[in-house]
Design goal:
This protein is mainly β. The protein folds into two domains: about 1-55; about 55-145 and about 240-470, Porin (Beta Barrel). It is about 10% helix and about 50% strand. The protein is built from two helices and 24 strands. The strands form three sheets. The protein has an 18-stranded antiparallel β-barrel. The longest helix is centred in the first third of the chain and has 25 residues, at about 5-30. It is globular. The N and C termini lie far apart (about 75 Å). Keywords: Signal, Transport. InterPro entries: OM_porin_bac, Porin_dom_sf. Pfam families: OprD.
Length: about 475
């Protein structure tokens, strides 16, 4: 009778014999090894195509100079003085096996000289002396990772699915990623399904990063994003949105609905349509409605919240180098000093908006405001200078809330405001400086009989350059 150890020995010998036979067969038939090598080469070629040949790499440089004054006790005093040099690199891969890839954006915003106020560009340190008191804020140089997202796609133009997730930009429904000198982004995900000209999407996020933060932060109900030693902020667990876009032959219909958990919900409809009046003349029209309502409870801090709204209309006539525009808007936001397009407090997320009377110094969305805007822009192509453009616009708002701190039942609407914006832009279209853009934006805002905002003067000067490494 065989012992247990003898049985194990026989099993071991059998396994070794089987392995030897397999190796012998493999040596006699080298096709298996060849196939493995070919597969490895194929994968290597696919990776090279996706992550190098089909990728793009750009270097960005942005010199930003701003000087803004605010009227205090009848005198204009510095509110923002800022000089920042941005250096950034962005990488966008192709798709491995035509399915998956990734995007990156990293940047440094360098503080140049002394600054005043919060520019919303440089890192804002609420406690510059690190003494535990948030009464000595200052701006600092900041290096950070702005975008690091995985992306995937399936299908084709007739029926396709696109996804991105990680530290990613979002642009669907009522959520958007705006820009400072760099793209704002979320910790979250976005999914879009396309069926020809019809697109559906959903997005979810629980953290956000803008230019004046060094990292992604939780979403909150305060402008300082829940900064330590500042006034208490309630955390908003997440925001999410659904949206649909239908492409018309000469326009678009765009709808969306979103919600910030226990804080606010909103919805929007945009319709844009272009009419060709002649081969050289086009009328561009748009209508935008945005509704919102705070959610009663401890997070919003509001009870018996009212439905709020913003409505805007715009028409722009383009002929040759001239573009003339006219817009109108009206706002109803009785639960706040102005209309909140976001699903969080300001600075905690961005919003998709198509504001028809926005100016450089104000959005003209204070509670009660009715506003008109007219503008004229000209490109000097007919003078042989296609690189040069200039424009001017004027806004006027009335029925502005008088005391923005008053309860909604006690509000009156006797305020008014007006503004004038100028712009001069020059783009180098060829030569050694191709890709360099210079922009100059002076602006003025005057308010009357309202504490919503003080009168201001502003000046922005920008030098923007992008160089494509590949």
């Amino acid at each position: 009778m065989k012992t247990k150890s003898q049985k194990l020995s026989l099993i071991t010998v059998s396994i070794l014999a089987g392995l030897s036979a397999f190796n012998a067969n493999a040596e006699l038939d080298p096709s298996a090894a060849i196939n493995a090598s070919v597969a490895a080469v194929d994968l290597s070629d696919l990776a090279k195509k996706a992550f190098y040949e089909d990728s793009s790499v750009n270097l960005h440089s942005f010199l930003y100079i701003r000087d803004r004054e605010n009227k205090v006790d009848g005198e204009y005093k510095p509110q923002i003085e800022n000089q920042t040099l941005q250096l950034a690199l962005d990488y966008n891969s192709g798709y491995f096996k035509d399915v998956i890839g990734f995007d990156l954006w990293t940047s440094t915003n360098l503080k140049l000289g002394d600054t005043v106020g919060q520019s919303e560009i440089l890192l804002y340190d609420y406690d510059c002396n690190d003494d535990g008191a948030a009464n000595d804020a200052c701006e600092k140089t900041n290096t950070s990772l702005n975008v690091a997202s995985v992306k995937a796609k399936f299908g084709d133009e007739d029926a396709g699915l696109a996804m991105r997730a990680g530290y990613t930009r979002i642009n669907i429904g009522t959520i958007r990623s705006s820009w400072g000198l760099n793209p704002h982004a979320y910790r979250g995900a976005e999914v879009k399904a396309s069926f020809g000209k019809l697109h559906f999407g959903y997005a979810w996020a629980d953290q956000f990063k803008n230019d004046w933060s060094s990292s992604f932060k939780d979403l909150t109900t305060k402008w300082h994003q829940g900064e330590d030693n500042m006034s208490g902020a309630e955390k908003i667990e997440f925001i999410h949105t659904v949206g649909a876009i239908y492409e018309l032959d000469k326009g678009v219909i765009d709808v969306g609905y979103g919600e910030g958990k226990d804080f606010r919900k909103n919805w929007q409809v945009l319709v844009k349509y272009d009419v060709a009046l002649s081969p050289a003349t086009t009328l561009k029209t748009s209508a935008f409605y945005h509704g919102g309502k705070y959610i009663d409870g401890d997070v919003s801090g509001i009870e018996n919240a009212s439905a709020e709204s913003y409505v805007g209309l715009n028409a722009a006539l383009k002929k040759g180098g001239f573009t003339a525009s006219l817009g109108y808007s009206q706002t109803d936001a009785p639960d706040a000093k102005d209309y909140n397009f976001r699903l969080t407090a300001w600075a905690n997320s961005d919003h998709r908006n198509f504001l028809q009377t926005k100016s450089q110094l104000d959005d003209y969305t204070a509670d009660g405001t009715k506003a008109i805007k007219s503008g004229l822009d000209y490109n000097f192509s007919s003078w042989g200078i296609p690189e040069l453009s200039a424009g001017v616009s004027a806004n006027y708002g009335w029925n502005v809330v008088t005391d923005a701190t008053a309860a909604k039942a006690d509000r009156t609407y006797d305020g008014s405001m007006y503004s004038i914006d100028y712009n001069i832009r020059y783009s180098f279209l060829d030569g050694g400086l191709k890709g360099l853009n210079i922009k100059f934006y002076p602006a003025y805002l005057r308010t009357k009989d309202t504490n919503y905002k003080e009168s201001r003067n502003d000046m922005k000067l920008m030098f923007i350059y992008t160089y494509g490494l590949k």
